[in-house]
Amino acid sequence: MATRTRLPRQAAQSTSYTFDESDGSADAAGSGDESSEEEYGRKRAKKGTRQGKPRKRVKGDASDEEDEDDFAPRSGGLVVQLDDKEEPEMVEYEVKRVDFGELLPLETLREIFGYLHPSTLYQLSGLSKTWRTIVKSDFMKPLWLDLLRGPPTPKTEFKDMKRVIVADDDPEPIPTFNGDEVEPFRLATLLFDKTCENCERNNVFTCDRYLFRRLCYECRDLNLVPTTEVGKGKTYRDLHPATLQVVASTPLPPRDICYARSQRSWVLVGDLRDASEMLELLQLEDDADSTSKYVETALSVKSVQKTLGRAKRLKRGWSAARMERGKALEAELTEKYSPRVKEFVLEKLAMKEEHAKLGDWIRMRWSPLISMQDAIKAEGTVFDSRLQNARVTAIRKHLSNEGIFPSSTFKHAPWSSHPLVQRAEPLTNGAIRPVLYRVIARYVALNIIARCGSRKKTKKDDDDSDDEAALKRDLLKKPKSVSAQGWKWVRPILAELLKHAKQPEKPAAPLQQGPVLTMEQRDVKNAFFRERYEKALDILPSQKGRFYAPRFGEFLVCPTVQQLYDDAEFAVDESTYDADLATWAEHLDAIFEEMGDHVLEVRLSALKAILAATTEMSAEDIEDLGVDALADPAYDDSFFTRASSWVNCADCYKFGSLVEILKHRHEFHPLSSPHPGSVKLTADAPRSQVELSLEVACAWSAILELANIDADKPNFKAKNLTMALGRQDVAWENGPRGTKHRQTWSNLIEAVCRHARAAHRRQDVLAVPVIVLRKPYKPRRGRGWWW
Fold first, then answer.
1. 639 shares its domain with 744
2. Which residues fall in a compositionally biased region of kind Basic residues (predicted)?
3. Based on the domain organization, do 360 and 408 belong to the same domain?
4. What is the pLDDT of residues 31-53, one digit of tens each?
5. What is the pLDDT of residue 13?
6. Mean pLDDT throughout 430-447?
7. Mean pLDDT lowest among 99-113, 371-385, 629-643, 668-682
């Protein structure tokens, strides 16, 4: 027999409802009738063997002449008389919080809870262990049943051309489960808990009434599989044939995933595995008891899935004969199993019917519960707005009665939008009085400054010092509209505002854009440097060298080039072209040397990005790599052409070898100025050309492994991977929303790069991408109509 929940709390008769009494009053009130405690099933609180730390008292105090009864033990501790030589010990008293769960009796709490919505009552269980014990107790079970079932439905009839309420229909009771009543608190947890029971970190908006699970969108996408895939795919071929017949399925698909029309039910992968293991154990027991093999050994998951699909289609028909035929197919399939498996399957089928009844009840009650919750929220919003309006009115009346500031000031001053005023609590005491007065005084001070600042000069020979002195004299005069008490609040704020007004704002330093030139001179200079840049690229020995060369904006920030570009007299007139060309020729060797340094920096930064994402080298070792590392034969030109060395463009999601990315940047991201954004390029802090995140490296490695391609083979091309995959596509199984569909490998890598960069901006990382192959679509048979 189930025992009653016994709360460690005193009886209702001994409860004190006042908060200004001492702690000793609770002990005095604890001597109530013990029979009442037995009636309500509560235990008397045990007296502690250790009292609080004694509060010591110094001899010679003014309270020494009190009676000896004053030194009796109290709830706060003992008062001990010390010798003159002993020093008193400082004692800190703890402020106790008021817990209404321990003060109010259960009957009163249940009466209060009767006005709450079930979701609000469930949220109370998360406040503390005491509240959770109260809400889950058997004493609250009738209240839970009343709240979940809802109020009686009025029964109406049509009489005398009017619809009249004749009676109230009792709400439909909660269906039983396995012959027992459903625990109402567990049902409330299923309906109103917002935490995913799988990952325990994401929010759940609605529960799945078919699976009776609270799963977030991400967990549903990762764990739900269509039943057609279970029957046709090779992944689940090792399951027991009766697995699909016993697991619960849901018609609610994962979000944003396109499936064929035949995929109308989904099951959880974990349920498939658990049910299959249980069926295998039962099958082993039956095989051990009998020497002959059963018929189900000839069955497979695919054949069972086809039979169940056919039976489901027959039962959906409108004909009774077809429905009976569908039930007969399921019964015929069940008879093929071994005895223990058959018993287990029949038990699960009966449980599915009870699940369906409970799911229908949840579907009928869910909409009324949500409508009731919306109505309660709307009423609460209206009540809070009325309470705030009443609060503002009371504060305005309070300020007007004091008469410190004129009533006309309250209409325009921003005091009513202050956070202390906008609170819904009806507080009009003196706690917020100085805060509001400072807000109003600041408004008055700003008006005074505006009025004095708008005064025009009457004499032309007035200088700034005379105006400042006149303004100070005007500010020191109390206006007639402000009372003497109000001036005490306004004057300090005026002085503070005047102090800040005297400090002029320093103009922002303009961005250094080079020498100050006219538009014509700037065009001549840019044309000269653009021509020299093209000539320098033509001198390079190969086309590959042009891709490694800096872009025009990066070329201009080379130290020698920048020095010539910042010269206000160099290349600003076409008449001095020959002299400027001679000057350029003098610095040509230094310019080519700096362009070679740029190539080394590009290769070194790419090498660091590749090693950081594809090897286990520490960050310190990678940072210590210098230009000398490029002399290692392991990092020659063939290293950057391997499939394992492909990188992303730093400005977009293009993916390829280093040379291909550099060519892409010259064609699609030309840099015509050293100011690509708000930050100017410098030779000391160049921008990275390529990057490779860990997520992209993992996804790329998985794709190469699926295509059976050697990642360390040099001279790898994109067409090699396309030919290896053929007509197959790839899919990102554990990707974010909208990325789990089949797509080409290039689109998938771009999607991984895009979401990885977004996660890095949020100071987060993505899970290791799980990449799978998708077979090509089969041509569909014509359905008899045009799409």
1. yes
2. 43-58
3. no
4. 444 444 444 344 444 444 444 44
5. 41
6. 79
7. 668-682
β-pairing verdict for 742-743 and 729-732: antiparallel
- Return d(Cα 764, Cα 771) in angstroms, integer: 21
Q: Based on the number of CB atoms within 10 Å of its own CB, is 597 exposed (0-12), middle (13-18) or buried (19 or more)?
A: middle
364 in the same domain as 225? yes
Q: Amino acid identity of 471? A: L
The residues pairing with 731 across neighbouring beta strands, listed in sequence order, are 742, 772
How far is it, in rounded angstroms, from Cα 95 to Cα 701? 61
Q: Does a structural domain hold residue 717?
A: yes
Question: Other C-beta atoms within 10 Å of 227: how many?
Answer: 22
Q: Residues 411, 362: one domain?
A: no
> Other CB atoms closer than 10 Å to residue 326's CB: what's the count?
19
- Integer Cα distance of 577 and 583 in angstroms: 10
Residues 697 and 627 in one domain: yes
Q: Does the residue 13 lie in any domain?
A: no
Average pLDDT, the chain: 76
User: 448 — alpha (psi -120 to 50), left (phi > 0) or beta?
Assistant: alpha
pLDDT for the residue numbered 688: 84
* CA proximity to 186, closest of 228, 233, 136, 112: 136
Q: What are phi and psi of 593, to 5 degrees?
A: -65, -40
744, 700: one domain: yes
**What is the predicted pLDDT for the residue at 657?**
94
Fill in the amino acid letter for 696: V
The percentage of residues in the chain with a pLDDT greater than 90, rounded to a whole number, is 17
Q: Which of 126-135, 158-167, 345-354, 368-377 has the lowest mean pLDDT?
A: 158-167
Q: How far is CA 108 from CA 103, 120, 122, 364, 438, in A?
A: 10, 17, 18, 31, 45
444 vs 372, 415, 454, 483, 523, CA distance in Å? 48, 12, 16, 12, 56
Whether residue 491 lies inside any domain: the answer is: yes
Question: How confident is residue 466, by pLDDT bands cut at 50, 70 and 90?
Answer: low
Q: Say if residues 273 and 376 touch (Cβ distance below 8 Å).
A: no
Say which residue, 19 or 93, is predicted with more confidence. 93
- 478 and 593 inside one domain: no
592 and 497, same structural domain?
Answer: no
- Give residue 779's pLDDT: 44
Cα–Cα separations (whole angstroms), residue 355 to 4, 102, 127, 175, 350: 29, 39, 31, 9, 9
User: How many whole angstroms separate alpha carbon 505 and alpha carbon 722?
Assistant: 62
The rounded distance, in Å, linking the Cα atoms of 700 and 730 is 11
Residue 26 confidence (pLDDT): 40
The domain total for the chain is 4
Q: What is the pLDDT of residues 547-586, one digit of tens each?
A: 999 999 889 889 999 899 888 889 888 889 999 999 999 9
* Cα-to-chain-centroid distance, residue 776: 36
| Residue-number span of the structural domain to which 694 is assigned | 588-774
Beta bridge partners of 81: 57
| 691 occurs within a structural domain | yes
Cβ–Cβ < 8 Å for 689, 650: yes
Give CA–CA dist 131/162, Å, rounded: 48
What's phi and psi for 656, nearest 5 deg?
175, -170
| Stretch 491-511: mean pLDDT | 65
Number of other residues whose CB lies within 10 A of the CB of residue 728 = 14
Closest CA to 330 of 354, 355, 305, 351: 305
CA 601, CA 607: separation in Å to the nearest integer?
10
